[in-house]
Structures are given as structure tokens and as C-alpha cells.
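With this grant's support, we have settled on a layout for protein records. One resulting record is reproduced below.
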Amino acid sequence: MHNKTAQLAAAVSAITLGLTVTGQAMAADNYRLSTLEPGSSSYMIMSTFAQMVNSDEDLDVNIQVNATGAATQHALEAGIGDIDFFMWSASVHDSMKQGINMYAPIPHAQERSENVRGVMAFPQGFYHFITDADSGIESLEDLAGHRVFLGPPGGGATVVMRQTIEAATGLVANEDYEAVNLGWNAATQAYQDGRLDVYINPTLPPSPTIEQFALSREIRLLGLTEEQMEKPEMVSIVNRPGGVTGTIDPDDYGENVVNQEPVLTLGSISGIGTGKHLSADEVYAITKSFWEQAEEQRERTPWLRHVRLETAIEHLNLPLHPGAERYYREVGLEIPDELVAQD
């Protein structure tokens, strides 16, 4: 009886140990990625990134996507290892490093900024200013007295758009026009329901969200003028970390766009960041998996043409994760000294 009891105890112990080891192995292969809500370029790119890596049969990886909250909060969470991947933004990271703008009331923001690393950069997109063709709004000066979605509360896009409209037109948010506080999903629905006069989204053309708007109504793309772009305040915004300019071709969205010419607008560079708590081997394998599949995916996914290996480290203002750095050196990219992590 004693022997049977001992054998049973040993068997239970072995099973328990096996389950523990298996659980640890599974946990090691599970990663948490946070991004913006569906409808944004960041969501499209980062969810595709996760899907591609998860589908790699050579890896036993499961990247779980959380598409809620603001990128500003996600960066803080990555800085203490609560999440593994997040949407990096050059302008947001600059504010985090300095403890300014949305990070001014957060005393630990600067400390946490030292704990995040870069994986890759990509264009977040060009700011699409969308209004109904019959709204009577034909320029940014016409925003006075209207309901405008600049971006989610506390988000980097919101800061950039508030500053842009004021610099270009002198109109001040919540004094000259109503800045409506909504998340990306809620704002998309609000515009479709007619509860917003102007909807702004930094997204890559052709954006599925904007395409959906243009299916049901005639819309107008608002833009900036050359004169507005030359104002000193606008020059500062364009020259912010990750700032770019570009044009949106109305042909990207079909005949329901009433513009006859491309519109001039601003853009932002974003990317995928990670925490320095992940090992070099982990990040190397994930980075390699994504880029090796990207070319094939690009043929089926038009907006993915904007995500290029040759520009993967441009505009980064945080050190590369050593695992990502290893991959980029392997494929021949030249790594500037300032992007090499010192720990």
C-alpha cells in the first residue's frame, strides 16, 4: 500500500511538473501588443504584423492584440513590462522623454521612456480632413462653429491637429470650434451618423475607413495651403519629430470625392516599439519573421506598400532593441550610433 501511495504521489508530482513546464513554455511564447482602435493605419499595420508572425510555422509565437486605449498610455505600460509591443510615435516619444504635453502630469514618464526600444518605423499616414461635400466647409478656416474630431483624448494625433489648426487658421479648439472627445471607433460611427462635421484621421491611403465614408455620400478632403505651410508656427509642427508632409490624391477614394486636385497635408511617422525586458533572440526572431513575409503580403494588401524595409529605421528617436538591430545589420542596413542601445 505504501509503495502504491508513493508511486501515485510520484506520478502526480511528475504530471504537475510537466504542466508547470508546459505552462511556462506557453507563457514564454505569448506576447501582448497594444495599438490604436480599428480604423487607424496603426491598427491595420500592427494587427497584420501580429497575424503574420503568428502564422509563421517556424515560430511558436502568439501575439495577442489589444486595440483599446491611447498610444500614450501603451508606451508607459511597455516601460514597465506590462505589455511587450506598442505603437511608437516619434512625437509622442519626444514628449515622453521630456515629460511635456500629455506627459507633463505623469512624474514617472521620463524614467519609463528609458525602458522602451524600437523595432521598426512606418508611416502612420497622412492627416485626412473629411467633411460632407454639402456641409459648406471648404477650407480649414470654415471650421469655426463646427464639431470637429481631432483624435482621441490624450492622444498624440489630437495634440498635433489642435496645434495645426491653430497655426494655420488662428482657430482655437473649444473656443472657435468644438473639439469632440471620442475614441477612433466612436468617432467613425459619429461621422457616419452625422454627429460630426469634420473627421480627421492620420491614415494611409487608400484607407478602408475613408473608402467606407465615400461609398455612402459625397465627401470633401480639406487641406493646407502653401501660404499656411510657410507660417513659422506650421514650420515648427512640420519639423517636429516624425513630421512629414505629403498629398492625398482624391482618385484613391473614387468618384464620390468632389476634389479635383490632390490636397496638401501633414503626416506622421509611427512604428512598433517594445520593452527592453524582451530578449534579443525573441525580438530578432519576430522582426525577421515579419520582414521575410512582408513582400508577399504587400502584393495582396495595397496599403502595406508604404511599409518598407529600407526605411524601417528612419525617423526613430529611440534606441533599437538589440534583437531588431541584429536583424537589420544582417540584411545590410547601416545603423547610426544613436540608435544603438547602450545596455
